[in-house]
Amino acid sequence: MSMEEGQSGPGWRLHVDPTRCIGSGICAGTAPRHFGLVDGLSRPLAERVSPAQAVLDAADSCPMEAILVSEADSRRRIAPEP
Amino acid sequence: MTDTSEATIQRYPFGDPDRLNLDPRYARLRRDEPLIRVRLPYGEPAWLATRHADVRTVLGDARFSRAAAVGRDEPRNTARQIQGGILSMDPPDHTRLRRLVARAFTARRVEELRPRTRQIADELVDNLLAAGPPADLVEHVATPLPIRVICDLLGVPVTDQDRFHTWSEAIVSTTSLSPERIQQYIDNLFAYMGELIARRRDEPTDDLIGAMVRARDADDRLSEEEVVQLAAGLLAAGHETTVTQIPNFAYVLLQHPDEWARLRADRTLVPRAVEELMRFVPLGATAAFARYAKEDVEIGGVLVRAGEPVVVSIPSANRDETVFADADRLDLGREVNPHLGFGHGVHHCVGAQLARMELQVVLDTLLDRTPGLRLAVPEPELVWKSGLLVRGLTAMPVAW
């Protein structure tokens, strides 16, 4: 894994679009420390997180592109890949 | 109720599948005994989960592992263990491979394929109409459509389809093929894909196999064998399942003429109808791909010990009356439908959005072109496949 949990930096912001999420459970399985299912739909366990590869994996694995990872300060999109 | 003595272990599957009917004992199990001990034809005994919540936990919770099955006498339907590949991996290894292809199967990318898929569907229905009535929906539409779509997407020559369609049966076969034949077909499929990938290296392409080759060459964490297995798996899985579901959907609709009429009258229901049919059709004829508990986990009131395997019944979960109102009724307008027809968790079907789109297009095309669709033979004369992981028709003679 190229990025370790708890790495310092400006931090990332996680958002799950509830209108897109289909509750596939892919993100909660890929990044169980960052996403969980509530009433069948995914929610970030915390909105601001330290950079972590698992979060990028989850965003890039979502078939609905419902997960947005951005820089917490600038809101620049980090994942998913376009 | 955690008696695990041999006497309480039931054979699984409970019996030969009867068309698309779900064994009534699942309803009793969900109510009274949501986790039972079962023994599949081969391998060690396992727990069987039948409730929606428990099935979702087993498939989605990171405390359950597919990688832990490697080296175990895995509960299974064939004498030989088929392990290795993406279905025997957990994150992050699984993710490394899944990311390679997941971006090609997002809802957005799949939507771009819809017009071309409709064009293919129209051509195939032209062939159906020219051949009958009666004519076989399996031969003329259900089989060629998903094959042409996945070939386009992967970049596999559709002219080779007779070869790899034959070989693909190996990945869903339990007893329909001999163990030697299953191995031979899987070897053929891998060898075919290996050659194609080697050619793509010399002549780069924009299709998914071309992209996988470029990713492999740029990332030394991916082995050549992994890429070949993944591409072969996509090709085989990419049509065995949808090929089977198209006639299953048509069969269920023709057995529910009121719902078919409702769909004809309100075409906006097509996307919901596809979800409801995914829920209602018990595609799986048995269980496979056991998950192993990595630690003690309580599910369904039972303590599953670390190291014990659990298999799930998705068809049972999809009829769970605590989740789906009037669960045994087909309701094409069902609004809340968290079915598990594509699985759940990290191994959730990577082609789910593609399958949804194809199934929607097929229903739309049949509604447009053959609104009077009906069986051309009495229902009891239909022949169902056997010895496979999935239930489906060998042929479906229809008129219109």
UniProtKB/TrEMBL annotation, chain A:
InterPro entries: 3Fe4S_ferredoxin, 4Fe4S_Fe-S-bd, Fe-S_cluster_ET. Residues 12-40 form the 4Fe-4S ferredoxin-type domain. GO terms for molecular function: 3 iron, 4 sulfur cluster binding; electron transfer activity; iron ion binding. The keyword Flavoprotein does not apply. Pfam families: Fer4_13. It comes from the Bacteria. Its cofactor is [3Fe-4S] cluster. Keywords: 3Fe-4S, Electron transport, Iron, Iron-sulfur, Metal-binding, Transport. This is Ferredoxin.
TrEMBL record, chain B:
One of its GO terms (molecular function) is heme binding. Coiled coil: none annotated. Signal peptide: none annotated. Pfam families: p450. Pathway: Antibiotic biosynthesis; mycinamicin biosynthesis. Keywords: Antibiotic biosynthesis, Heme, Iron, Metal-binding, Monooxygenase, NADP, Oxidoreductase. One of its GO terms (biological process) is antibiotic biosynthetic process. Belongs to the cytochrome P450 family. This is Cytochrome P450.
